[in-house]
Amino acid sequence: MLNYTISEENYIKTIHRLQQFGTVTTNALAAKLKSKPASITAMMKKLKTKKLLNYQPYYGFKLSAEGNKVALLIIRRHRLWEYFLAEKLQFSWDEVHEVAEHLEHVSSKKLIDKLDEFLGFPTADPHGDPIPDAMGRIKNIQKVCLSDLPLNKPATVCQVADQSPAILELLNHNQIKIGTRVEVKRKFDFDNSLEIKIKQAVPFTISEQLAKNIFLNYAE
Question: Is 34 exposed, middle or buried (CB count within 10 Å of its CB: 0-12, 13-18, 19+)?
Fold first, then answer.
C-alpha cells in the first residue's frame, strides 16, 4: 500500500465517517473539515486519480474498495494509539483523541502490528469503538442503547457514541465509563429522562440526550 500525505489521510478518514449516512457531498465535507469547496474538489480529483474514490462532480462521492481499506487502517492506528495512551500512559479518555490524531499518521505497518501485539490485541479503544485487525476486519458486538434498555435489566457500558469533551466530562462526573454495570430503574414520559443505578450508588437521573450516546452489552 502506498503512503499518503497527512492531508489525504484526514480526507479519507472523514469521508469514511460521513459515507455511513449516504453519498458524501462537497458541502458536507467542506463543513466537516472547515475547508473551501474549491479545495475539496481539488482533493477529490487527486484521490480519484489514486483510485481511492468514486467521484462524479455534482453527484457526490464515496470511497472505493481500496479507499475503504486505507480508511480502516488509519482508524486501526488511531484506536490502537488511544488504547496505548489510556492503558499504558494513564491518559484519561477525554485526552487520548487529540494525541492519537497526530500519532495515527505514523504509518509503519511493522510498528502498528508490534503495538497491537504488545497491547494484547485489544478489540476496542477507550471509548468502546471497535479496533480493526491487521486485515481491516471489525468484530461485530451486540449492543443496546441505554435509552432502549428495559427496566431492571442489568447491562454493561461498552461504547460511547459522542466522544466530545463535554459528554466525557459529564460521564466522568456520573462515574460512568466502559465496563460500568448499569440498570434503568425508571423512565419519565415528560422528557424521556432515565433514573439509573450503578454499583451500590443511590439511583440518579440522566437526560435522554446523554442516554442516547451510551451503548451497553447485556450482563450475564
Answer: exposed
Q: Options 3.40.50.1980, 2.30.30.90, 3.40.50.720, 2.60.40.10; which CATH number does 144-218 get?
A: 2.30.30.90
Task: Please state whether the predicted TM-score (pTM) of the whole model is above 0.90.
Answer: no
Sheet holding 144-145, edge to edge: 144-145, 214-218, 155-160, 181-187, 194-198, 204-206
Burial 13-28 (b: 16+ CB within 10 A, else e): bbbbebbeeeebbbeb
Distance CA 113, CA 119 (A): 10
pLDDT at 219 over 60: no
pLDDT at 199 over 90: no
The pLDDT value recorded for residue 220 is: 53
Distance CA 69, CA 86 (A): 26
pLDDT at 193: 96
| Range 12-17, long-range pairs (CB < 8 A, 24+ positions) | 12/47, 12/52, 12/63, 12/67, 12/70, 12/71, 12/74, 13/71, 13/74, 13/75, 13/78, 15/53, 15/61, 15/62, 15/63, 15/67, 15/71, 16/63, 16/67, 16/68, 16/71, 16/72, 16/75
The predicted structure's pLDDT at residue 112: 96
The one-letter amino acid code at 218 reads Y
Give the CATH number of domain 73-140.
1.10.10.10
Q: Of all helices (H) and strands (E), which one includes residue 163?
A: none
